[in-house]
């Protein structure tokens, strides 16, 4: 493993990419930065009024570069180890090894840290000095920073953001403590090895920042700061992992996507802060003019959320709680546009108000409201967490979205159905179109879910919900047997990104395999080849559904042009433009594996499976799938499926499960600690019919 390439979870290089945007990121759910960058960002802390609001830049004390002055012929390596969530820089000579490690602590989310270790490898007694280059200046264009008194050897600054998103909106205060960084560190002649640790704590109160910094110091004193972080990551991988017996680039891509996406979610248990969602470029990006300024889009709910839900329902709930807290802003957005209910913003930040700098998207790309509700539906189906809806605001949100869709529809006397007019579909090459097939289908799904959940809770279902769901137009060409993207779409017109193909997955809109195939064949050749990275994943899922495995793989292979070396950072567009650390593309890619190769589908009453994967993948292991409180491990080959229940909930809400095969109807009870195996075939997991 000299160059690290044999381990699919460690990305090693002798040099850094020339484009600093492609450097590895180290983030947790609260703090994030790119290595060797002079700023870091904090969850939910934005500066600037609507149209200008962006992640507030916080000066980064962990932006340090290690060098050895005057040294010749040093071997140099840079490694991102996704197993431990650690970036390291190693300088090695015949006489010593100097190692710089940097990480955002996985479980103590207010902490970032780095260490420098010098280890003598020859019997010399010369002092060995490394230089630490740091351009750190405690100033910010977004914060009114003031110097406070030192605390336990740390420097201290604090300050509020300068401009609220809306008048009277939040202006959070950031408090930061950091260990001062010297210019040089020296291993003295009599020493064989020594480590120096440097801590940064960031929080929104003086009490929290001091508590976190003290906790970090205590762990340093016990010699366990980094090991506690690495252990937390080990538990993540133990709880949730996808491993393939297949080509190394595919395995590396999966590990990279999982690392960057899982870095963004809150740790298990009470994280002690309000989670503010996930933007396309994550917490490491989002300064003014970069990566959509750190705003939250449908990217979170449609592209990232299903993967998170499958492994971490707690984190999925935190994402939904963010949307619930933004409901007042969504209600106001709808009112301002002359509609009832709640219209979620195309771009969301701290208040739920529309913060997109360009009005056209906020006014027209309304499918995001249905995308938000689809995430709530998937969560409800996999967890049956009624508390979120009955007590924690979920039902109010569901009802408000249903109300919005009803008020957004107009009746067409001519066609005798409801129309939704003047929208921009996911394909942003077209605007002000009528009856975008995706928008109307997701609206229909929202209304059906709202009615279903009302019935579950014995709440009367408004008549108009059922009427609008039943009678909304979902464009379909009966002659050509395909779905036109919108009224008046002419076959052959260029399309920016996955749009109509999303009807099959994730919407699971009812259609025959012939129509599914026709949609794929109609839109594949006209979709922008260099467009957003998540597109081809959805074509791959479609072809896998139809068991056209090689055709699916040829689509998924297109994604590799969006993955950059050496740290597997995704770019939004294959020419390198757009967002970087593009979690949206990673989320799509993971869905192609997690929902495509396995055939997983979340329905009202089951978790379906129907595996299909390419010839060069021999085995797929998915560990930690959460369903109705149980944790499942799937081991799938072309010949056999093995399902093991690794964890079952205790107490009354526990659901005993069974696997049912589609063709034979054969049932296999699933009990904790036991596994069942059967020949690879379609089927589903459901509540046990014998309980």
UniProtKB/TrEMBL annotation:
Its EC number is 3.2.1.107. InterPro entries: 6-hairpin_glycosidase_sf (IPR008928), 6hp_glycosidase-like_sf (IPR012341), Glyco_hydro_65_M (IPR005195). The keyword Kinase does not apply. It catalyses: (5R)-5-O-[alpha-D-glucosyl-(1->2)-beta-D-galactosyl]-5-hydroxy-L-lysyl-[collagen] + H2O = (5R)-5-O-(beta-D-galactosyl)-5-hydroxy-L-lysyl-[collagen] + D-glucose. SUPFAM superfamilies: Six-hairpin glycosidases (SSF48208). Belongs to the glycosyl hydrolase 65 family. Catalyzes the hydrolysis of glucose from the disaccharide unit linked to hydroxylysine residues of collagen and collagen-like proteins. This is Protein-glucosylgalactosylhydroxylysine glucosidase. The gene is Pgghg.
């Amino acid at each position: 493993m000299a160059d690290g390439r044999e381990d699919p979870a460690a990305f090693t290089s002798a040099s850094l990419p020339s484009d600093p945007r492609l450097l590895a990121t180290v983030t947790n759910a609260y703090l994030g930065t790119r290595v060797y960058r002079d700023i870091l960002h904090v969850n939910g802390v934005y500066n600037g009024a609507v149209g200008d609001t962006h992640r507030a830049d916080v000066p980064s004390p962990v932006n340090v570069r290690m060098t050895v002055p005057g040294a010749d012929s040093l071997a140099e390596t840079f490694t991102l180890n996704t197993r431990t969530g650690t970036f390291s820089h190693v300088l090695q000579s015949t006489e010593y090894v100097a190692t710089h490690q940097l990480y955002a602590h996985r479980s103590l989310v207010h902490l970032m840290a780095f260490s420098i270790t010098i280890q003598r490898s020859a019997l010399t007694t010369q002092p060995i000095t490394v230089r630490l280059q740091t351009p750190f200046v405690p100033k910010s264009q977004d914060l009114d920073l003031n110097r406070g008194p030192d605390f336990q050897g740390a420097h201290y600054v604090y300050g509020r953001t300068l401009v609220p998103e809306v008048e009277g909106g939040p202006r959070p205060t950031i408090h930061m403590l950091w260990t001062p960084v010297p210019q040089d560190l020296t291993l003295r002649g009599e020493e064989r090895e020594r480590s120096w640790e440097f801590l940064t704590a960031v929080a929104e109160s003086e009490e929290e920042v001091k508590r976190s910094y003290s906790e970090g110091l205590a762990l340093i004193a016990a010699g366990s700061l980094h090991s506690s972080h690495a252990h937390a990551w080990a538990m993540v991988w133990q709880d949730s992992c996808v491993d393939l017996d297949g080509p190394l680039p595919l395995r590396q891509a999966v590990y990279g996507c999982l690392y960057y996406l899982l870095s963004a979610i809150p740790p298990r248990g009470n994280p002690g802060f309000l989670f503010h969602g996930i933007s396309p470029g994550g917490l490491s990006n989002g300064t003014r003019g970069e990566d959509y300024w750190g705003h939250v889009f449908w990217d979170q709910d449609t592209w990232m959320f299903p993967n998170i839900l499958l492994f971490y329902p707690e984190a999925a709930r935190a994402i939904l709680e963010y949307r619930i807290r933004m409901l007042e802003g969504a209600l106001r957005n709808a009112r301002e546009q002359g509609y009832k209910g709640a219209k979620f913003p195309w771009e969301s930040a701290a208040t739920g108000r529309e913060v997109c700098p360009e009005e056209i998207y906020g006014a027209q790309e309304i499918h995001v409201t249905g995308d938000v509700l689809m995430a709530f539906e998937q969560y409800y189906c996999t967890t049956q967490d009624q508390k979120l809806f009955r007590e924690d605001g979920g039902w109010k949100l569901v009802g408000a979205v249903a109300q919005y869709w009803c008020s957004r529809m107009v009746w067409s006397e001519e066609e005798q159905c409801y129309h939704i007019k003047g929208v921009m579909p996911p394909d942003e090459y077209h605007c002000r179109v009528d009856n975008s097939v995706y928008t109307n289908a997701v609206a229909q799904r929202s209304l059906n879910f709202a009615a279903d959940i009302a019935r579950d809770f014995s709440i009367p279902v408004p008549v108009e919900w059922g009427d609008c769901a039943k009678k909304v137009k979902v464009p379909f060409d009966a002659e050509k047997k395909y779905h036109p993207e919108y009224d008046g779409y002419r076959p052959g017109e260029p399309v920016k990104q996955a749009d109509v193909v999303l009807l099959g997955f994730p919407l699971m809109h009812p259609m025959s395999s012939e129509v599914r195939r026709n949609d794929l064949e109609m839109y594949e050749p006209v979709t922008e080849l260099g467009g957003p990275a998540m597109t081809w994943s959805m074509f791959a899922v479609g072809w896998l559904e139809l068991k056209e495995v090689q055709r699916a793989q040829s689509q998924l292979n297109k994604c590799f042009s969006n993955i950059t070396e050496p740290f597997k950072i995704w770019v939004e567009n294959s020419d390198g433009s757009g967002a970087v650390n593009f979690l949206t593309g990673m989320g799509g890619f993971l869905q192609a594996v997690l929902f495509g190769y396995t055939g997983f589908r979340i329905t009202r009453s089951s978790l379906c499976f129907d595996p299909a994967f390419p010839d060069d993948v021999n085995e797929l292991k998915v560990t930690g799938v959460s369903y109705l409180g149980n944790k499942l491990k799937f081991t799938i080959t072309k010949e056999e499926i093995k399902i093991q229940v690794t964890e079952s909930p205790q107490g009354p809400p526990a659901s005993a499960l069974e696997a049912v095969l589609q063709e034979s109807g054969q049932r296999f009870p699933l009990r904790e600690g036991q596994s069942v195996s059967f020949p690879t075939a379609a089927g589903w997991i459901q509540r046990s019919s014998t309980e």
